[in-house]
Amino acid sequence: MATIDVRALGEYIREQREAAEVSLRQLAKNAGVSNPYLSQVERGLKKPSAEILGQIAGALRISAETLYVRAGLLEPRDGDEAVTAAIAADTTLTERQRQVLLEIYAAFQSENATTDPSASADTGVPSDADTAPEPTRAGTTSAGARSPKKDPS
Q1: pTM recorded for the entire structure
Q2: How far apart are CA 40 and CA 97, in angstroms?
Q3: Cβ distance 133 to 141 under 8 Å?
Q4: pLDDT value, residue 150
Q5: Are 74 and 68 in contact (CB under 8 A)?
Q6: Which pLDDT score is estimated for 130?
C-alpha cells in the first residue's frame, strides 16, 4: 500500500465539503468528530483512522472507498475510472450497494481478462439469433400444435 499523503487527503476532503456546500462545523457535527480535529485533518496535520474516514465519507455522502484509496488504505480498483467514479458518486445508492456494484464490475473485468482474447466480443448475452423463436410451418402454431382448419365451403 502507498504511504498516506495527509495534505492531499485533507485537501480532497475540503474540496468535497465545499462542493457539498457544508461548513466545517456542520461536517464535524454530522461526522461525529470535533471541529478542531476536522480542521487539522483538512490542513493535513492529522492522519484520520479508517473509522473516521468512513464517518466523514458518510457525512459528505460520498464513497468511503474513495477516501480509503486517497488515504492509501485501499488499492485503487482497475477499470474505467469514469465507471467507478460514477458508481462511487451516485447518492441514490447506499454505501453497501455501491460496494456490491463495484465488486460485480471487478468480477466481470476479471472474467473478461481470463477468457480467450478472440472471444472478447462475447458479452455472455445471447444474440437475437440465439434466442429467436423457430419459424412456424403453415398450419401449426408456434408451439407446434395444429391450427384449426377453416371449412372450405
Answers
A1: 0.54
A2: 31
A3: no
A4: 58
A5: yes
A6: 47
Q: 1: burial class by Cβ within 10 Å (0-12, 13-18, 19+)?
A: exposed
> Contact at 8 Å (CB) between 60 and 22?
yes
**Helix, strand, coil in percent for the chain, rounding step 5:** 55, 0, 45
Span 30-51, pLDDT tens digits: 999 999 999 999 999 999 988 9
Chain mean position to CA 118: 28
The yes-or-no verdict on residue 115 having pLDDT over 60 is: yes
Report which of 101, 99, 93, 15 is spatially closest to residue 65, judged by C-alpha positions.
Answer: 99
Question: How far is the C-alpha of 10 from the C-alpha of 26, rounded, in Å?
Answer: 16
DSSP 61-122: TS-HHHHHHHHTSSPPPPS-HHHHHHHHH-TTS-HHHHHHHHHHHHHHHHHHHHS-GGGTT-
Residue with cell 480535529: 37
State the Cα angle at 90 between 82 and 52, rounded to 5°.
100
Domain edges within the chain: 1-76, 77-114
Q: How many CA atoms lie within 13 A of 53 on its CB side?
A: 22
Look at the domain 1-76 and name its fold: 434 Repressor (Amino-terminal Domain) (1.10.260)
